[in-house]
Amino acid sequence: MSLDLSPEVLEQVRAEFDPAFYLAANKDVAEAGVDPFQHFLTFGAREGRDPRPDFSMSRYLALHLDVREAGLNPFAHWITAGRAEGRAIDHGLGFEYEVLWGGKSIEERMRDLRFALPDREPDAPDTLRQAADALAPGRGVHVTVGHDDFSTGVGGVQLCIRLEAEAQARRGLDHLHVFPSAAGVVVDIERDRPTLGVVINGTLAGHFASETVAEVIGPRLAGRRTTFALHSLIGHPVDRTCDLLAALGMTEGFFWLHDYASLCAGYALMRDDVAFCGGPAPSSTACEICSYGRRRRVQLPAHVEVFQRFAITAVAPSQVALDLWKSRFPVRATATVVHPHARLEPRPVQPAPPKTKARQRLRVGFLGMPALHKGWPIFADLVRRFGDDPRYEFHHLSAVLEPRVAATFTRVAPTPDQPQPMIPAIESLGLDVVLNWALWPETFCIAAHEAVAAGAVVLTHPGSGNVAAFVGRDAAHGRVLPDVPAMHALFASGEVATLSRAARRPVLQDLVFSGMVADLIPEPAA
Questions:
Q1: Cα 269 to Cα 263: distance, rounded to the nearest angstrom
Q2: Which helix (H) or strand (E) holds 170?
Q3: Confidence grade of residue 8 (pLDDT, cut at 50, 70, 90)
Q4: How many CA atoms lie within 13 A of 265 on its CB side?
Q5: Within 329-458, where are the H helices?
Q6: pLDDT tens across 103-141, in order?
Q7: Average pLDDT, stretch 267-278?
Q8: Whole-prediction pTM
Q9: Distance between CA atoms of 353 and 411, rounded to whole angstroms?
Q10: In terms of Cα–Cα distance, which of 403, 504, 516, 393 is closest to 454?
Q11: Other CB atoms closer than 10 Å to residue 451's CB: what's the count?
Q12: What is the number of other CB atoms lying within 10 angstroms of the CB of residue 350?
């Protein structure tokens, strides 16, 4: 890519370059302490790094092949010639096209993961024997299976495992957690030497072959009261994991429907990651044309094996999730139950109504990771449409910044001192409205409950699963709008202002989490 730019052109390009965005989008450049514009000219342009939020280097080259063939810096070309020529910098086809055009296939993502995280050498069996001494003689043991080390990971599934372990500990049970040492995006059949990470009572014991875990732990569980819960089999060689559970003496357990990974390798049931598919028959044409279709033929039978080898109770955090899963999963569970992750309880003491005048600007937020299936593109488009409207201000509360969207960012991430930071963050900012436009049928959605607990209302649509069910149960929770144009009309007209805190006087609530499957297991007889 040509760097032969005249001083005049360099100054033109510098004037349009956004150094703050470039540093926010490229942490390596910020950490190196180099001049962002010089880095862009010397390395960034050649590497395809974007110079500002509204200009994509790769998109411009894809739209204008003559610029690509000439080896020109696309941003410099647009500044000096392309803009005057009326050349487009956006295809105008929406985020769906962007995903289909630039996304990696599931096979590519798997290859990348295997390259980045190769099979690791197992730790010595004696390491596990020493760690297993933490399993107190005679105590019952609760076993959980997940996709990562819940004790260090952050996310909804990790939180559920942590709460479940704590609830079981209060009942006098030890906790054994296993997860794939090398992360995966689907159930594993490719790893030559898969190992399992083992966490005992919240402490990582190391990484071992499943046969070693069975050999060391199995005899220690003999005669004990044991239970198990499968929270995620992503990354697991399912047949080996089933063999391990059997070797540990397990015959019955629980399977959590946190998502739809038991139905498809695309755990959100989104065809090619852009639209909800409804989980058609694996032999359907719809699956044939989807990037997940081939891998679904591995994912689905692997989960069926679990239900065939053990007496499994399927636990859904909502009726919506259970109904969808039961209509698509090819075998029956031994039992099914709906058990929400959490419930709302009004706080005994409510704050006094504010004495100041109502704010003029409505505060609109998005909570959590800027993920496509969570509806981030819908929020980003809303910010682009109304970001300069003096009636509104937009906020993003998350552990991850997305610098392309001009919303005020507040970093919100759990810490040992504040394990549930989202609710106080929403209250502190005084968010009025939270957009939760999930593009898949959410099975529960902690974020929607956090928003209402903190006094905000939720805007969503009928296809958002339990979000729509939660909002639709109580008008105080928000509104279920028919589609995106209806949501845009609400903002364009200003009618959304009727959802402000000042207009509603919300009741603040606490989000009280359940004990997960600990609530479903009878106490042992005295």
A1: 8
A2: helix 156-170
A3: confident
A4: 27
A5: 376-386, 422-429, 446-453
A6: 778 888 888 888 888 888 999 999 999 999 999 888 999
A7: 93
A8: 0.88
A9: 28
A10: 504
A11: 29
A12: 13
